Amino acid sequence: MNTSRDVFLTIGKGTYTLSDEEIDRVKALIDEACGEIVKGAKQEDMLMLTCLRLAYSLDSVNEKLKKTLAYIDSEI
Prior knowledge:
By secondary structure, the protein is an alpha+beta fold. It has one domain. Helix content is 63%, strand content 13%. The protein contains two helices and two strands, in the order ββαα. A two-stranded antiparallel sheet has the order 1-2. It is extended and about 50 Å long.
């Protein structure tokens, strides 16, 4: 049986409590975002590259959604 536990994530000055499911989602996001980053990079470089990769992913999804909505609007 899985037991619940409180996990605290501190980013900057903020602290967040995560459930097991949220922990798994965060791990997957981090693995996806920085999986190809060069090993041995400094922590600050890893954080910056990860943020840039996540921002790029969000921007790409936003552009695809805009195109999809424009297509739907043109079909109506």
